[in-house]
């Protein structure tokens, strides 16, 4: 499947049958490239994504928030975009020395990498509802770089790969295209039996716009 379209077998009416009109509701769309390397299916597949969404619905319902699945789209993605840096190299900055992380990030926001933006824009349409939707985007590897303080004047740049990343507004601010502001990358839902919590965890970051 080279063209992106709703995946057959995912019945949105059935998934959303428990929603109650008038209750606080967040719209969620899922994007799963059809041509990812076969070995990656052990990390993320349709069943794991739907389990993560279903369990997240239960968790958020406890807080009085409904999750509505508005699409489960699949299609071909350029293979060079399977693995991306989350942030434009060089735009990472150590935490501010004299204020909190949020103020520091507002003054000097991180910038999304060109490859990450290209991957997301290949899947997420720039339409009227895009900036009001959470977009769970599956990739194989998303690298995140950050500074760790070693002593009072020394910082070390570290790079890790993430199971999920919410591309939080408090870090990227207006450097993130508005229609992509709801993007969450998902790369691993099979680390252990509770890995579905990655979805709920990242949804919490995105909906509340807070760090740990």
Q: Low-confidence runs (pLDDT<50, min 5 residues)?
A: none
Helix coverage percent: 25-40%
Number of extended strands: 9
Quaternary state of the chains: single chain
What are the secondary-structure elements, in order, as H or E? EHEHEEHHEEEEHEH
Query: Cα distance, first to last residue?
Result: 38 Å
Radius of gyration, whole Å? 17 Å
> What percentage of the residues does DSSP assign to strands (E)?
25-35%
Average pLDDT confidence is 92
Spatial strand arrangement across the major sheet: 1-3-2-5-9-8
Largest sheet: 6 strands, mixed
Number of helices: 6
Shape: globular
Structural class assignment? alpha/beta
Would you give an account of this structure?
It is a single chain. With 212 residues, the protein is of the alpha/beta class. 25% of the residues lie in helices and 26% in strands. The chain is built from six helices and nine strands, in the order βαβαββααββββαβα. The protein has helices at residues 12-15, 46-61, 101-107, 114-123, 169-172, 197-208; strands at 5-6, 25-33, 66-75, 83-85, 133-138, 141-151, 154-161, 164-165, 183-186. It has a six-stranded mixed sheet, covered by helices on one side. Strands 4-6-7 form a three-stranded mixed sheet. A hairpin with a 2-residue loop joins strand 6 (141-151) and strand 7. Helix 2 (46-61) crosses helix 6. The mean pLDDT is 92.
């Amino acid at each position: 499947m080279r063209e992106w379209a709703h995946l057959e077998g995912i019945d949105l009416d059935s998934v959303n049958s428990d929603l109650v009109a008038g209750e606080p509701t967040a719209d969620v769309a899922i994007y799963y490239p059809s041509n990812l390397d076969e070995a990656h299916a052990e990390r993320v597949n349709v069943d794991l994504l739907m389990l993560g969404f279903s369990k997240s619905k239960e968790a958020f319902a406890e807080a009085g928030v409904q999750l509505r699945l508005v699409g489960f789209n699949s299609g071909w993605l350029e293979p060079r975009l399977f693995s991306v840096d989350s942030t434009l190299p060089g735009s990472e900055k150590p935490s501010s020395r004299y204020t909190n992380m949020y103020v520091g990030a507002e003054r000097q926001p991180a910038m999304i990498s060109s490859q990450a933006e290209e991957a997301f824009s290949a899947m997420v349409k720039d339409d009227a509802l895009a900036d009001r939707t959470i977009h769970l985007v599956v990739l194989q590897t998303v690298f995140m770089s950050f500074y760790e303080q070693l002593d009072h004047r020394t910082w070390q740049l570290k790079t890790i790969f993430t199971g999920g990343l919410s591309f939080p507004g408090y870090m990227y601010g207006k450097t993130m295209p508005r229609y992509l502001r709801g993007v969450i990358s998902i790369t691993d839902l099979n680390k252990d039996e509770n890995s579905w919590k990655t979805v709920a965890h990242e949804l919490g970051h995105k909906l509340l716009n807070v760090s740990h």
